[in-house]
Amino acid sequence: xxxxxxxxxxxxxxxxxxxxxxxxxxxxxxxxxxxxxxxxxxxxxxxxxxxxxxxxxxxxxxxxxxxxxxxxxxxxxxxxxxxxxxxxxxxxxxxxxxxxxxxxxxxxxxxxxxxxxxxxxxxxxxxxxxxxxxxxxxxxxxxxxxxxxxxxxxxxxxxxxxxxxxxxxxxxxxxxxxxxxxxxxxxxxxxxxxxxxxxxxxxxxxxxxxxxxxxxxxxxxxxxxxxxxxxxxxxxxxxxxxxxxxxxxxxxxxxxxxxxxxxxxxxxxxxxxxxxxxxxxxxxxxxxxxxxxxxxxxxxxxxxxxxxxxxxxxxxxxxxxxxxxxxxxxxxxxxxxxxxxxxxxxxxxxxxxxxxxxxxxxxxxxxxxxxxxxxxxxxxxxxxxxxxxxxxxxxxxxxxxxxxxxxxxxxxxxxxxxxxxxxxx
Amino acid sequence: xxxxxxxxxxxxxxxxxxxxxxxxxxxxxxxxxxxxxxxxxxxxxxxxxxxxxxxxxxxxxxxxxxxxxxxxxxxxxxxxxxxxxxxxxxxxxxxxxxxxxxxxxxxxxxxx
Lengths: 425, 112
Prior knowledge:
The complex is a heterodimer of chains A (425) and B (112). Chain A has 425 residues and is mostly helical. Chain A has helices spanning 4-18, 20-31, 37-64, 84-93, 103-121, 131-154, 160-165, 173-191, 207-227, 234-261, 267-281, 290-315, 323-341, 354-357, 361-391, 400-405, 407-412. By secondary structure, chain B is an alpha+beta fold.
């Protein structure tokens, strides 16, 4: 007999996570310039389409197929989700003793994760990357980087990062945030800056869209972190509570930083702090106490603020909507802090945080897990960028003229606000 | 007849409209405009990054008045739109050849 409570909970969490990607489209769309809104939002929606297909075709199998004997890859036995329905029917007749819910739930839950991860990447390339090139990149990326990385972290016994290295990642610090943020950084370096970057930083064209998107992400994140317990139990509730308090703390600390640094708290800043708080608690959501989640949220905003306002200016990379500054930096910080704050009794590996045990071995594992993630992502990203660049005749970017026109018109022939001045002309 | 085109601070519009109504002005046209002058932009902060804005939003208010009222109206606009800071705006006065009220086909000052 399945645990119907957990099954229902996981189905709801799946839908919440699916809802995050349209939410991110609004978050990014609001931050974008008026001439690039359609392109920015479409890149997120395209991630839903592209990853949906890639996940059915091979992504699930690459991540969670096989017999679990490989440390870095699932298998090829479930391409096209073959055997899924037979398996489901077989399970229904004879429920495995260790199953809390039908395994088909997991296929969709994990697909939702792959979608939002791919969509996060697009924030770095806003305003200049050819739509075909970014689409092609994401197809390959989900199969070559995301799916194997998910296996390495969450593949259970024998998996490279989760088991051999022993790094803890409750809901996707390595798999989702570091991988997408760092990929964003690689892409924006490969593309080069927008032509007017530094001369004229762009203002968000629609701040209420940013707030709407942040709100949708906030809601979806409870499914993301809560569902990563894979059962409707106390740890799931703890993960949801930690998610709420860390994001609350991130919002407050971002506003305080702004108050000190520029004199005025902003709504875009509050939303950014909220999301940074969500990111930082993701790797530790079910491992830490609420006070630690508060600390994580309080710390993440100043760090991300520095990354976005100082690091970006210093090194001149045009991470347009701050996928790296928010997700990459916040994800790394969250992984490290999990190594400090993990309650030993809650740990998947039995290794507790430095603060509880005085033993730095978990922190060392976290550092190693992050380092391996970074190495894998950077190397594979560079290869994929090279291949996609070749496939697109060396042109990943739109022309300068198209960039000046805006990608909405040049790439899509569609403008976001044709009746902006009130006339249906 | 003269057209008085006053480019002023947006926050002064309500006050200015009330003052002009009080002075018996019967009609005006208002535009939201962007522009630059000796007030060289201002900055906002987006996630800690300073964003310089060189084109500043202003309001352009146009009205056409009989010649003998023009000086009084200019004084009124100046008094009302004044803050004393750079960026208070400018007034341009040009001659208007003709005015026609479409409904009645009245012409000249009678149509104002």
